[in-house]
Structure formats: C-alpha cells, structure tokens
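Quick entry, no commentary yet.
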Amino acid sequence: MVWHTQGSGKSLTMAMLAKKIYSTVRNPKIVLVTDRIDLDTQITETFKNAEVPVHNAKTGQQLVDLLASNGDAVITTIINKFEAAVKKLGTTPLESPNIFVLIDEGHRTQYGTFNVKMQKVLPNACFLAFTGTPLMKKEKSTSQKFGGIIDAYTILQAVEDGAIVPILYEGRHAIQNVNQKALDRGFDSVSEPLSDYEKADLKKKFSRANLISKTEQRIDEIARDISDHFSQNWGEDRTGQRSGFKGMVVTPDKVTAIKYKKAFELIRKVTSEVIISAPDTREGNDDPHGEPANEVVLYWKQMEAKYGKDFDKNIINQFKKTNYPELLIVVDKLLTGFDVPQVIVMYVCRKLREHTLLQAIARVNRVAPGKDYGFIIDYEGIIGELDEAMNAYSNLSEFEGEDLEGTFTNIKTEIDKLPQYHSELNSLFKEVKNKLDIVSYCNLLADEYKRAEFYVKFSQFAKTLKMAFSSIDFENQTPDAAKDLYRQHLQFYTALRNSIVNTYSDAIDFKKFEKQLQKLLDQHVTTEEIIRLTEQVSIMDTEAFEKELEKIVGTRARAETIASRTSKHITERMDEDPVFYKKLSELIQQTISDLRANRISEAEAFKKLNLYRNQAISKKTDDVPAVLESSSRAIPIYRLALSSEEPLKTHAVNFAQAVDRIINQYKIVDWHTKPDILRRMTFFIGEYLIDELNMDIDKAEEVAEESLKIAIANYR
C-alpha cells in the first residue's frame, strides 16, 4: 500500500514505478486498474507523458490476451474489464511472477471480494494499492489485504514541498424559521391513510431525511450567497477580465443539483452546469431500488437534445479549457480523481465524511499560477467531520510503517467472530422445527423485541461474512461446504428480513411521501439570511482551526445541539407519551428562547437542556407514583389522565391500571392491526369511564380513543 496525498502526483508516481519495473524486470506485465473511465483516460495520458508505452484494454478478453502474450506490456483498464478478465481465466490461473497489478484508490468497496478473485487467478502477482486518503475505520483492513504500507506522503509534506496549495476553510449558515403548527397539520394530512405505527415510522424517516436542507428558499439564498462570493472574488473585474479560476458546488442529490442550477440561472451572476451520473444510477440516492426522479430524467433528455449523448464530457472539457462554465454543480461524480488546477473554491452543501470528505476538498488543492490557496465554503456544518478526518490523518501520519500496522483492526480477528455470529443468528430460531419453512420464522418474529434482536444479529453476520469473503486466507483455509452454508444462510436470512419488514410494516416507503413532505417544508420553512460562522482558517493550522471549531461546538452551540437533537427525539416518539413529551418540548423551546434573549447564561441553559435530554431518553420524572413503577407502559396513560379534567384527574392512577389490565387481557399477536380487537378495547375502556367515573358517553369515547393511541405506541 502506498499512501499518497491527492493532488501531489500519485498518478505520476504510479507511472514512474511502472517505468522502473518495465526497465528492470524481464518480460513484465504491468496492469493499472482504476474504477472509472475518466480516471483510466487520465492515467493513460500521464503514462504517455512519462514516456511509458501503454495498452488500453477495452474488453476483458483483450486484457486476458495481453496478460497471456509473450511480450512486455503496460496495460491500463477499469475494474469491470479486469473483473471480466478474471472470470475468463477461471480455473486456469496465470502463474507468472512477473505480473504487477497497480490499483488506484485500493480502499474502495469495489475491491472487496474481487480482491480475493484477483489473487486466486494471479497467485504469484505483485499487488500494489495506491490511496490518496488515510485509511479510515471502515477501510482499516485494506493495508492487510495488500501486504502492508510501503510509504506515506502526507498533506503536510505535500504543502511544504509546494506539490499542493494549502486549503482555507470558512463556515457559513442559513438561518431558517419553521411554522411548526402548519407543518404538523400538513404532516397529519399527508399521513392520514396510515396506521399509527406507520405514522410513527414515517415521522422518524421524515426527521432523518434532512429535507429541510433542500427547501427552495434555502437553495435560493445559498445560491445567491455563492453567486456574490464567487463573482466578487474571481468573477469578471472592471476591465472585463476574468480570473480564470473555477468553482464546484457539492449538493446532496440530483434533484437538488438541478434546483441549484435553476437558482443560478435566475440570479445571473455566475455561469453553471450540472454534472451528474445518468438517471438510472444511484448517485446521491440511498435507495438502491428507487426510481429516478422525473426532474432528473427530464433534465437529462433536455441536455442530450441540446448537446448530444456525451454532453457531460463536452461540459467538462469546456470547464477545463474555456471560461464557461464558472461553476460545476455535482453530487458524487467528480469528487474523486478530477484534477483541474483552476478549481479554487468548493461550496459544500451536503454532509461529507472521512475519506470522501478528504477526497472532495482535494479538488481545490492543485497548484496553478496565481493560486496561493484553495477555499472550502461550508454551508452544511462539516467542520466537525473535517476536524475528525484531519486529526485521524495527522495521527496516522506520525507513525512509521510498522507502528501504523498496529493501529489497524486485525481483519483475521474480525473474521474469527463469524462462526459465533452465525451460531447466535441460528439460535434465535432453534424452536422452529421445519428449517425450510420461512412462514414459521416470520411467525416467531411477530414479537417486536425478537424482531429487533434478529435485525442486529443478521447485520453482524452479514457484515462479517462480507469481510470474510474479501480475505484470501478465509477463501483458501475455509472448507467449500462451510462457505456454501454461509452463502445459503445469508440468502435465506436476507429473504426473511425483507419478508418481515413488509409483514410487520417495519418500513414505510418514504419515497412515496417525500415529494409531499418536501412541498410542506417549502411552504412552511423560511430562510432569512446567510451568516458567517467562522473566520477563514487553514485546515493545516491545527491551533487556529481548533479555535474556530470551538466557536461552533462551544457551550452555547452544544446547548443548541442538545436542544435540536432532543427535539428530534421527541418528535419521533411523541405518540408514545404525548403529555410528557409535549411538556418537555415546551420547556426546551422556552430555554432556547431565554438563551437567545440573554435571560439565562449559556452554562445554565446547557445544564437545563442536558436534564431535559436525559428525561427524554429515560422517560423518567419525579411525578410518577411508586405503584406504577412496575407497569412502566401504563405511565403515559396516567399522565394523560392527570392532564384531564375531574374526576379523571383525581383517579388517574386507577384509570392507568384499568387500561393496563384491559390491554394485557385482550392483546394478541399484531393486535394493533386488528379492528375487532381495537373496538373491544375501546369499548371496555369507555365502559370503565362511564361506570366508575360517571363520564358522559362522548367524552368517554374521546378519552378511550386517545388512550388506545398511546397504548398502540407502547404495548407490543
């Protein structure tokens, strides 16, 4: 493994290494593998410039023929062509020791299980992986797959050598206001056809989806801020001259990228184009089965009609060689391996983490005439992630190669846990007699707690098995029968998981509601202005960067963060205990209002909000009678009664106990989905209120229905 900072000549190092091997090893075959066509083209050009004769393998068969030929060969190819070649070799491996495989960005997921196949068909080859980023937690087994780290050329070394320019960071923030009551009414309307359980699931996904960052007003305000910033710093000057520098705007998904493009067109201060992958790929989309959005399909067709099939290549070529466009709007594409020295600024409008973040910001670190710095303007609050990534990078770079190995997770240790995870997963179903009957498995998982345990055990097993199949030692040392059994069980449990998710409504298809919910936010969330959160600071100036970070994560900011996250937690669980959570939500809002109006100190606000957070998580307060502590699920019913009028308020404990008895007496498997059971429970709760508390029929029915909603959220 060679760790070589992005932008500091990694491709050139690969070319020089290939040239050295070519001139010193007898009859060598050198294969350079990348994972994208544009990188393959770029590395081919680098090799030609270094005077290394190159064959570009366009097909798997062509690659096999070149490897099996008698002559010398330096070959570039992309991973899918190399994978096709490996399949064609099959059971006839090439045993030459003079085959060298140089892999660009060897930590990427594409090289996982495929790495094992490469080593099996090329058993005596030398594998060398090059990476431009430090090896983060998820990729810490990479160096072991490739035999250890040979050398590291870090960011600090590259800056000191002048191989790259330093990067300045600046944080900005869009202030947004939410019309919560209107939003809640809209959500109730959108989710009306759903059951209470499904509503709760949709609410959780709505909260996690971060749609608020994609509202039209926010996009418009950020686009205006970007337009002003770029045009004032690098746009056309008074004489009509342009700086020649360019920028990139990183967005969360394709639809949002197109919205930014439309906003820039309306503002008309900077020119821009969108570079995304085709609509049928999953770029910026967490759902691997989802259909592409209509806006994306329409945009793609319009661009093809206007510029032809390869319009993205034409735009990129213009971006590199002309003044048009000034900004490229991207999602994932071009965040790695896109080397354009004129790119001086990146506007970050989405969350980026770990090596993806470091790869992305490196787009602005290339050396160019008149370019002293690259700039990162952050609208999404990635300073914490950047600090973490840079610290991980710096900490690792201080080690010698041998010491660095000790900081990695031992892949063998993780794989050794596979039999245990497999056994634990199987033991969940030891009472199932017919091991081929998936219905019996589904019935056993009717219990929510058992189901949750299954999800955890299955995830552990699946992840560890994936890691195992990426290890050549596991492949060679594990009997075929054991590997086949693992594969069969993975297939079976995957099918089981998909079945129970549908059966028990553990997953609402969020995509069906996303557009309606996004429209609600567009209507009821306003964006006031963009403010500057931090001063410009070099990401390599550790002390200064930490000071700016403290501005964001200091006492006041931590208080705001606690409030925000606790409110999110409350929103997701409001149905479980509406009285308790409503009161807690009001206390949080009042504390934040007092803090912002300087009525209380930051320390006092932090203390209060920390207390509210703990209460929200534990759901414990001092107002619960001891007699109910053993019936925790009845406590929300008690709070509902306590907040009601007399005589229910006085008899809150007795009412909570009565509801608890009724629910436990009549609940069966999936009771919350069975109308006859729900009617029976409502009847007996209402009967108790009428007979014991002399409540009128209409009021009794109303309280019974409210109680049942709470019970559905708590009694499973």
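second:
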Amino acid sequence: MTRRGPGVLLAAALSCASPLVPAARGQNPPARPAPGAPAGRAGAAAADTTPPAARAPRDTIAPPDSLSPDSFLPDLPRLGSPPGPLPASGRVVWTREELWHSGALTLGELLERIPGVFLVRGGWLGQPETVSYAGQGAASVELFWDGFALDPLGADSTGFDLSRISLGLLKRVEVEVLPTVLRVYLYSDDQTTRRPRTETSFGTGDASSNTYRIRYLNRWSGGTGLGVGVESFATGGGVTGASGSNRLTLWGKGSWIPSPRFGVEYQALSVSLNRNPFTEAGLGGSAGSRNHRTDVFVRGYAASRADGMGMRLDVLAGSSASSDSSAGLSRTEVQGAAILGYRAQHWSTEATARVRDTGTPFELQLRAAANPIGPLTVAGTLDERALLGHRHSTEASLEAELRPWGGERGPLALYGAVRARRAVAAPAILSDTVQRVTDYDAGLSLTTRRLAVDVSYGRHGAFAAPVDGSFGPLALTYPDSAVRTATVAFTLRPTLFLTLAGWYRRPLGQTYAAYEPPDRSRLTATFRTRLLPVLTRNAFDFTAEVAMEAWGRGVIGDSAGTPIPLTGAAVLDYRLELRLVGATLYWTLRNALGERYAPVPGIQVPGAAQVYGVKWEFTN
C-alpha cells in the first residue's frame, strides 16, 4: 500500500486553521469547547456551574407538563475540578448532552480529540487502552471520579486501563490540560427532579461485539436520591492477534441532600474484566487475565452559603480493591481527603489533604485562581507528596490568560502554562527515583462568530515515563528526551448545520516523543440538523460525521528497551445518528478504509469495523 503523509491529507484543512473556542468566564468558568463541538456551545454549557437553586429559568413560559418549582432539589457541588475563575485555554468540557451524542465508544476515544493525544489500544474494543500525551506514557492521565482518586492498581499499577471506564454512567467530563498531563474529572449521573429516569441501551457490531446497559435514577422529597446501573460488554476479538473479552460494570449511588448547604453521598463502582490470551508477532503474547476492581466511597459537604460562594468543606473516605486471579495479584488501597475552599466572584482558593495507605501516604495540594482585572485570569497549583521509601514529589503549575481588549469575552487571547516537577513517575515502584523537569506551553487564539484559530508552542523536558502494565508482557517503554512542538487547532462553522474542527501537531526538530509521532493530526466534519431547540418536545435530530486521523512514522520500545518503529497511518471513521424524542439510533464505522496499522506492535487494529445500536432514555 502506498502511504500518503498526513501533511498532504490535511493541507486543505490547515489553510483555514482555527481553534477550539474559549467561552466567557465566571465563577468556576468556561472552558474551551469539547473538540468537534460547535463553536461556543460547549463553552456555554461549561459556564453554567451555578447551583441549580441559583440558576435563572431559560424560558419565561413553562411547557405544559413542567413540574412545580418545589420538585427541583439541589445537587452535590462538583468536587475534583479546580475552582474558578480559570483560563479557558486550559480546560475541555463535555456535558451530558455532548457525551450522549459524541460518538465516542470509550473514554480513550473521547480524550484523543484533545490536541496532541494519541490513543494506544491493543487491537479492538475491550482490549487494554491508554492515551499518550507529550510522551508521558502511563503518566499522561490522572483520573478522579466525583473527587475520588482512581489510582492505578493491579497489573496497571503505573497507569490506568481506560477501557474499564463506562461513559454511559457519566453526566460530565472535565479535563484540565497542563503541558504534560491530562487531569480527567469524571462526574457520575444523577437525577435533579422528583420523578424517575430510566435508560435502556443495546449495541452490537463486528467481531461478535455486544453491549447492554440499564440505568435507573430517581429523587424523592426530603432530598433522598438513588442511582443504579449495570452494563455488560463482550466481544470475540475478530482479528489476527486480538482476543475476546467481556466486561461487567455495576454502579450504585445514594444521596441525601436536604439543602444546598449540606449533604452526603455514597457510591460503589465494580468492574469485572476478563480477557482471553492473545499473541503478538515478534514480542510474545499475553496469557489472558481475569481481574476485578471495586471502588467505594462516601462524601459529605457543608457550605456557608446556598449559592456556591463562600466557605465550603468536603470530606471524602473510601477504598479500592483490585485482584487478578490469573496472575495471582491482589492489592487494596484506603484513601481519605478533606477539602477546604473559599469562593468569591473574582477569586478562589482551596486546600486539599489526601491520605492513602499505599504508595502515596500523604498529599497536600494548594490551589488558587483569580481574575484581578477583566482581561487577565491566573490560576496556580502547588502539590507536595510524601511517598513510600522516604521519597518526596513536589509539583507546581501556573496558568495565565490575557485578553487585550473586550474584557473576558474579548476575541483575542494570549495564554501560557508552566509545570515544574521534582517527581517520581511511578510511586508504587520503590526503585523509581526522583526526576527534575520543567515543561511549558504558550499560544494565542482568535475567536470570531464563524471561525476560531489557536496556535501554540510547547517544550516538554526529558522525563522517563513509566511503563503501562495493562499490556502485560507486551509492556512498552518510552524514550527519555526533550521535545519542542507546534500545534494548530481550529473550529469553523460556515453554516448553522455544518461544523469543521481539527488540529495539527508537529515536532520542531529531529527529536520527538514516544507515541507522539510527527505530523499528528485530526479533522472532523459534522452535519447536524439542530432542530431540537426548534421542534416541540425535542422530537427529531440527525447527525452525520466524518473524522480523519493521521500521523507519520514514530518510535517506541519493548520491555527490554529495544527501539521499535511505529508506522504511520491515515484512518477514516464514519458516524450516523438519529434521535427520535428520547431514543437515539447510532451507527459507527471505524477505520473505514481498512488501513493496516498497529499502535501496539503486532496487534493490528481491524479495518472497516462497525458498531450500531439504540439508546433510549425516558421518564416513568
């Protein structure tokens, strides 16, 4: 096959380059829109972070079947993401509506839409999945579920296997984008009105892949809430080298929130994941695995005011347990956290103390953000961690955004972020030593009604990233090197119904990071009828999307450190979606042109693999 470089494939797109659109800031403000979303839409949703009790109604005339005001009760304030105000350039947000219609089948497929992210998957759905960002390997992602840290355990003790996370249980995903890490805050779904909500979903596809999901959520008078869900996924693998797998996810959530000023919540998340053996040409194979992980935690909060401002104390305690019967591994972790914060209209500060009984016994984090004058927003974090083996990690980050004219809604933004670390890459490994590194990004964005452009430059210092154990004996190493990159991102809306969005990233020089191959790019064209806000009762909506992802030749290494080439590829995906009232029918075709490529050497990703199904959400 003759391979064409991604630079040729995206030349036309880059000629009209423009960025992910930042939105106006407020308290716990705005973020750049979710990649691929229409300009301004995700940002507007992200800005709506005031407690429900303080929000103004969107319409002055209520629909005939609307509920009385006393049926709307407060939610627990979101815990985990940084308090605002924050630079819009450093956040990406997917709301519940955007998650539902994103077309992403896994958390990795969602995160790969962020400029610079490369998805590493061992073949087909259900196989180990991680993302690499700025050459950081398993250290690229930190995960929090409603404020509870999902620390790596079991075979993935240095990195989290993203295939374990079910997007169907979430109502919101926020990503704090720093120069060399993605801090991903996952928020579970809940019900805010006194009537039940139920979802039933079914999907099937190639390689005997099937998924089922049922959820039930309700809220009663007095502030008591309940959410339960079960999801089952199974696949036969279906391609050379790949294997079958099955996953069962159980979720439960109970809450008591009688007032916007205090409440408690309990959650339990259980994931059983079984994978059959698979082989990998030239590097051996995997003996398969049968593992189970359970996370349970309770959270309580008390606030001085009902509008989300003022002083607030959150207390969280829980445990995680992971076992792998095939490998004889069993690990547990207990963690507790106390978060004390103060929020004002133009500034906020927060202190978090977190204790664990494993690799990071104590962690203290200080965060602050301010909008001292209209055009300027700054935010910073200082993190000190005490590790086992008398080791310590210290990290500091600072973000700033300046809009020279137009105030916080000005069209032009200059931004920058720096992250300095004296850190241990893998706290669970006692032999891992401290590394010193400083990373930074800087750029500018210009936003208009139809077009937005974002251009940035970054330097990521040399850092020996940890190996992700999810791939077992196929574990891959990541070369230690400093890299300079340039990134262009854009969103273009020529009409109300059509959105073009994408990004292009290229190393400046001969050195590039592992799993960050040169000429990395992603482009999407989305047609959506957008009749939901017009037609009564959200009766109809149709979406058609084409996405292209391309990259050049790169390099990785095996568990012995032997360099292994990463081949270039150009991958085309299709998606169709039809929404009828509460039901959504969808069809996706991955790698439509049958491109032969293997993010994990020897484990080929299948060509022209489709998944289709229906999601139906209704109120009883």
